[in-house]
Structure formats: C-alpha cells, structure tokens
Amino acid sequence: MHFPMHFPPNPIGSSNPTRGQPLQRRHFIRLVGGGVVSAMAAAGTVGLSGCAPTMPPEAIEAWAGPGAVVGAATDVRRWLLGYAILAPHSHNLQSWVADLGTPGQITLYCDLKRLLPQTDPLSRQIMMSHGTFLELLDIAARERGLRADIELFPQGRFGPATLDTRPVATVRLTPDSSVAKDPLFAQILRRHTNRNSYDLARPVPAAAWDAMAGAAAVGLQGARVGFAGVEQGASVLAAHRRIARDAWRIELTVPRTIMESFDVLRVGQSEIATHRDGVSLTAPMVVAMDRLGLFDRSQAPAPDSYATTSQIKAFDAKLESTPGFWWLVTPGNDRVTQVNAGRAYVRAQLAATAQGLAMHPLSQALQEYVEQQQTYADIHTLAGATAPGETVQMWARVGYAAAVEPAPRRRLQDFIRA
C-alpha cells in the first residue's frame, strides 16, 4: 500500500526561502514528517503494509505457504500453524502463542506483551484476532483430513476487562475421513487487507453480499450481518462515511492513541525485516527522512497541523470511494462471542476475496475508549444494534480495488512454545 506524502508547496510559507531559515525549515519538516507518520500509523488496526517500493522478502515469506517450514513435513501441527499465522490481527501485533507440548494438540495463548491498552482497552479486538487465527487453523486442518475440536477457555474465561495467562483455546486434532474440505482454504494465501481507494463505479453485487453473509454465518449462533451498498441509497452510505470520518479524526488527534501506533511503526526494510509485525512503511521519502533523523516518533502532531488535516482529507477521499459497508452484530459481548466473531469475520473476508473484493475494517468507532463514545453509539444505531447487549463486532468498507502486498509475519518458530 502506498501512503502519499502531503507536503505543502512552500513548507515555511515563502516562495523563495532565504538562507537564514534552514533551522526553521528543518524543524517544520520534523514536525510535519512526524505527523504524517502518525497519521499513517493510525490508519490501521489490523495491520498496514505494502507501501512502495516493496516489502523485504523475508518479512512476507510466510505468504508462500508452509511447505518449506522446518518440521512441517513431520509435524502436521506446524503445517497448520503456517496458515493460521496469516490471519488478520489488530495493528498486526500477532499476539498468538501456540504450545505444542501435548502430542496431537495445540494450546493457544495470548502474548500479553502484545496488547493495545489505549485503542482496545478491553481487549475485544485482541480476542477477535485469536478467533481469526483459530478459524484459519480449522480450515487448514480440514484440508489435511483432520477434525479440529476447539475448546475455548478450557481453564475459564477471561474477565470482561482484562486478559491473563490462562489459555484461549485447546485444539485437539484427530484424523477423520468424514471431515469436508472448506473451499475457503484456497483464499488464505490471497487474503490481504486493502486500505487503498476503491472503485466507486463498481457496486458490490448481491451475490457477493450473500456469499459473505453465508460464510460468516457458519458456527456463529444468533449473530447477524448487514450491508449497505448503492441499493440502500446515497444517504445511507453518507451516514456510514460520516461516522467513519469522525472516528478516524478522533483517533488521529488523541495523543495517546496515536502514540500507541507509533510504538509499532516499522520504517524501512531493515526495521520491517527485524520486527516483521506492526505498521510497515517503505515509501522512499519516509525512509530517507527517517534516516536523516527528520521523523520524531516521540510525540504526536498537533490536531490542527497540516500533517493531521491533510491525512484526514486523504482518508475522507478513500471513504468517498467506497461503494459498500459490511457489519457483524452479536447478541452479546462475552469472550466466547468475541472469539467466534473473529472467526466469522475472517470467513467473510475470505469469501470476499473469492469474489475479487477488498475489505478494510473500520475499527475506530468500535473501540471502547471514552473519546469514541459518540461514534460507538452512532454506528450501533446505524447497524440496528440497539437491544441490550447487542454489539457491533466488526464494520468494514468493501469494494473493488487494485491488489496490495501482504503484511509482514514473524517466523513460525516465534509463535511456538514447545
């Protein structure tokens, strides 16, 4: 994905800056540069990547599939995990830990060092991200003729506000010739979150909405999906865009939420290859300025800075290019529901991929921090989630778009606890 750099034509307000102004200009670039980076970082809660020119090959090698993974030929669990780690995750944190200590079983834990206390204070999105992992694991197991018996929270559920060291799930694998393969398996290596502009002239067809709804419905009892496209009218699409725009502006201008993205910002191929997670930026100008020390990642830009306002404008343009919105509502919001909602979402995204469509989660309005209270209420009202306990677990833009590169993934061994 390419992030345009929005510099004004005259950074210091003069068509012919004098020689007496170099420090002023340098200071301005530092502030604007830092602001642009913060805006870029804030753009994604499920991982941003693919900026020009290219990602370092070693950071995206996992997307070639687990065929070459050490041990995959002798331990099918490693082969399955090679697909599971390709699941979408908030901010691309990849907080999964797989314990292989028990033969024929995978025990899934959450890496408590990889949380989002500012933008996801109740860790709802983290739990959904574990659901996406489990769903890809289950689909991959079916491909190998294995039944994956998944028990969520075998030692008890986490509380509503915090996570702990107990396992998220145990997955017991049993050969079973009656297990049917899932056609969505073919989309796992092709699924990428796409945050670019979409083709407004190409509406999402009814058959695609139906395919996404059908895929999400598998195994998620009592939930419902909704969508808004051109058939629902311009005013409905405008309402979705307004909420997304407001929520984006809030996250972009609240210092602590921006700084949380700064913490996982990876600039340039070297940083990306070293970390293989977080928010990736490879645009040449970004990398050059970072090497020159012109990016200040230690503080957030001012809300009225050009860097902030220009990125708000750029995001608005992406919203205006969006021909459809999709959402998922559950009747409750306990930890099991959150995990299962993640399973449903990734199935919907795989189905969208099969239809040639792109999806981009709009997570900001669903986040439970105080500044987002109004947008949280607004999207729940718009989605019809007004009954007690009903929760919008996912909301995303949908449309046709040019392909993007995959997000980085850490090495498989980084996720495994033997």
Descriptive report:
The chain has 418 residues and is α+β, with helices and mostly antiparallel strands. Among the domains are: 57-188 and 405-417, putative nitroreductase (tm1586), domain 2 (NADH Oxidase, 3-Layer(aba) Sandwich), CATH 3.40.109.30; 206-246 and 319-399, NADH Oxidase (3-Layer(aba) Sandwich), CATH 3.40.109. The protein is built from eleven helices and eleven strands. The chain has helices at 22-42, 76-84, 124-143, 206-217, 234-253, 255-262, 268-275, 284-291, 306-320, 335-354, 373-382, and strands at residues 96-99, 105-110, 146-152, 169-175, 224-228, 265-267, 279-281, 324-330, 358-361, 391-399, 416-417. The strands form three sheets. The protein has a five-stranded mixed β-sheet with strand order 3-4-2-1-11, covered by helices on one side. A four-stranded antiparallel β-sheet has the order 5-8-10-9. A two-stranded parallel ribbon has the order 6-7. Strand 6, helix 7 (268-275) and strand 7 form a beta-alpha-beta unit. Helix 3 (124-143) crosses helix 10 (335-354), helix 4 (206-217) packs antiparallel against helix 10 and helix 5 runs antiparallel to helix 11. The longest helix has 21 residues, at 22-42. It is globular and about 55 Å long. Residues 1-52 have low confidence and may be disordered.
